[in-house]
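Box 3.1 — From sequence to structure: N-acetylglucosamine kinase
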Amino acid sequence: MDAGGSSTRAVAVDAHGAVVGRGSAGGANPNSNGLAAAASNVAAAVAAALDGRVCAGVVLGMAGSSKLLAEPAAMERYATALAGVGAPRPRVVSDAEVAFASGAAEADGVVLIAGTGSIAMRITGHRRAAVAGGYGWLLGDEGSAFWLGREAVRAALAALLAGDATGPLVRAVLDDTGASAFGELITVVNNRPPIALAQLAPLVSAHAGDPVADDIAERAATGLAGLARQVWRGGPVVLAGSVAGPGTPVGTRLRRLLDGFDVRTADNGVLGAARLAAVAAFGERVGRAVTRA
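Predicted structure (token representation):
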């Protein structure tokens, strides 16, 4: 299953790799939903997908999985809830591992996620082997939506200082923030939660062709490509996240910079979780057979 903050999707896969059941429920991340509700939603989604079938294994993909794994009481709550619907203790994996599996059936490669934050992860044997980036907005997140928004504001500040705030992206930043002067823009941005800078990222994409926006997109793609290269040792590179999507300014440049690599795009997360569950329960051949979820 793919467990998010607002919704959870589960699929049941048989020993031939065919999807034989689906289920959905509310959010299953304990940080945003509370442990009791999260565990209940996991069980509800799995029960609907199983529809009375015998369950050989469960893979739970979740952002923030390391925190869940570090809290035995929370894991027991999930395991107990699943046992109540006839499912065994889940194997919990990160959203990055699920994203890689959603875009590649191979066991080894790299996944590069560029959403609100950014991280590259080398996958070996379907599991995390090494990472680059993923430090969060304060220490890194190169090329992420947060980074794009911050660079857009920095460009606007530079333009205001130079006395030429007429460029399309700069004007869009000032319109969005309601600021018109250097000090005012700093005050407005600092009065918002830092991560709110990610909300300005679409302005960079929307103003492709503006030299300022294009420079930011190029630097973002260069930073992201660098993260992927740091951990790549072979296999496909799966791109995931809204910033790295095909057709986006950053995504287009990123794919050009990674020319020569086997670049793929992540599909829906529940497909990746289904593949990992099939591998765990039935082996590699069946996992590769899971193509639709």
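Summary of the box: The longest strand covers residues 19-26.
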